[in-house]
Amino acid sequence: VSVAHARVARADVTETSVATASTPRTLVVGDGGAYASVGAALADARAGDEVRVRPGAYDERVIVDVDDVRIIGDASESGAPAVRISHVTMTPYESAIEVRGRGVVIRNVDVSHRSKSVADNYGVFAVEGSRVMFDGVRVTSSTGSGFGCEGAKVVMVGCEASACATHGVAAYGDASGLPGSGDVVFERCVFAKNAGNGVLVRGGAMVTMRECDIASNGRFGCEFIDCEGALTSNAIRKNKRGGVSRTNGAEDMVDIDGSNVIEN
């Protein structure tokens, strides 16, 4: 075999290996799948993969530290999520789902959370530097906020946080607190019957909120502190301390146009 031919052969093998390694896969969790838990599937996942979760209850803490991965729960015939992830622990700071990766999508999942009650206690948590889209994710936390975002870029579509011990969603900038150090988009979401605010945004985060329903929360519907953003076509009603509070610069930097319906 000539040296040139050997080089070509090695190049062909290398190219084939790279192509195989980058081909997206579907990893199935639950009934008929190769994995018993979401965590086990994520341990094998690589960028571009989809983790498909069959209907059922999964008692586990899910840490998503893979970039560009999709976690998709099977929906019921009505279209509602049929997958429930629950995490109950006496250890503080443990969310039921913690996102550390970028380009992550999580869809059609219900989340139930209980952790020792201390500061920064979230059912679903997007950590600093992460980038994630939540689509049709519903969460309740008996000890903390439903969703927490700290220095992350987060898009939430058709999500819900209700009956949480503190806020429906709490979004912050990163440790610097500089303007734009966190970025959150809420679209067609519901934040209702939480003991604190429906929505809390502060510390340099930027918020865009469209067509959301924020109702019957124990503090404000929305509280904005030292942040910026815009609200369009939202219904904010029947919240104990009022519809919207803007302080520490947010009164000038968070725009609320006439398309919003705000009832105290």
Helix content: 10-25%
Apparent shape: globular
Going by helix content, strand content and strand pairing, the class is: mainly beta
- The H/E string reads HEHEEEEEEEEEEEEEEEEEEEEEEHEE
Radius of gyration: 21 Å
Q: Give the biggest sheet.
A: 17 strands, parallel
Q: Mean pLDDT score, rounded?
A: 92
Number of strands: 25
How far from one another are the termini? 83 Å
Proportion of residues in extended strands: over 45%
Unreliable parts:
1-19
Q: If helices are DSSP runs of H or I spanning 4 or more residues, what is the number of helices?
A: 3
Tell me what you see in this structure.
There is one protein chain. With 264 residues, the protein is mainly beta. It contains three helices and 25 strands. The strands form two sheets. It has a 17-stranded parallel beta sheet that branches. It has an eight-stranded parallel beta sheet with strand order 4-7-9-11-14-17-20-23. Helix 2 (38-44) links the parallel strand 1 (26-29) and strand 2. The chain starts with a helix and ends with a strand. 43% of the residues are buried.
Quick overview of this protein structure:
The protein is mostly beta strands. The chain has helices at residues 3-22, 38-44, 250-253, and strands at 26-29, 50-53, 56-59, 62-64, 70-73, 83-88, 97-99, 104-114, 122-126, 131-141, 145-150, 153-157, 160-162, 169-172, 182-187, 190-192, 199-202, 205-210, 213-215, 220-225, 228-232, 235-237, 242-247, 254-256, 261-263.
